[in-house]
Amino acid sequence: MTDVVSGYAGGSAANAHYDDADSGHAEAVKITYDPKQISYGQLLKIFFTVAHDPTQVNRQGPDTGPSYRSAIFPQNAGQARAARAFIASLDSAHAYKKPIATRIESGGFYPAEAYHQDFARKHPLYPYIVVNDRPKVAALKSRYPSLFKA
């Protein structure tokens, strides 16, 4: 990765902020990456196996509501095709006991407020981080050691 930014996607710029629960946005991250170091396919694999539960509808862990939906916002037609094909391959392999809820969506990305950026790094002992996010980082390190960078 060359950059990761926390933010919102799927709604308008006017309501891209944390306190607007009815914004139409999904909480999202914008990942800028070097395809020579990691492929889009590898990012999809991490997204579906480590980052979250793609079978949950409007929920991720303890967080509920449409802003916590499982969604991918491809940046071009090739990424959209790759994401659809990846989901189809997971479905055909019956990789999950429940249907995959991840949606392929369009819409702009809007960075979150400054206090959201690098939150886990700045607050490693914050209870939400300890319970929900640190296990995901440990899973990433365990499942994909060649891709993990501290």
SSE order and pairing:
Elements lengths: L2 E7 L16 E7 L7 H12 L7 E2 L2 E2 L6 E2 L4 H16 L10 E2 L4 E3 L7 H4 L4 H17 L7
Parallel strand pairs: 5-6
Antiparallel strand pairs: 1-2, 1-7, 3-4
Helix pairs in contact: 1-2
What does this structure look like?
By secondary structure, the protein is an alpha+beta fold. A hairpin with a 2-residue loop joins β3 and β4 (63-64). The mean pLDDT is 92. The protein has one domain: Peptide methionine sulphoxide reductase MsrA (Peptide Methionine Sulfoxide Reductase, Chain A), CATH 3.30.1060.10. The termini are close together. The longest helix has 17 residues, at 127-143. It has helices spanning 40-51, 77-92, 119-122, 127-143; strands at 3-9, 26-32, 59-60, 63-64, 71-72, 103-104, 109-111. The strands form 3 sheets. Strands 2-1-7 form a 3-stranded antiparallel β-sheet, with no helix packed on it. Strands 3-4 form a two-stranded antiparallel sheet. 33% of the residues lie in helices and 17% in strands.
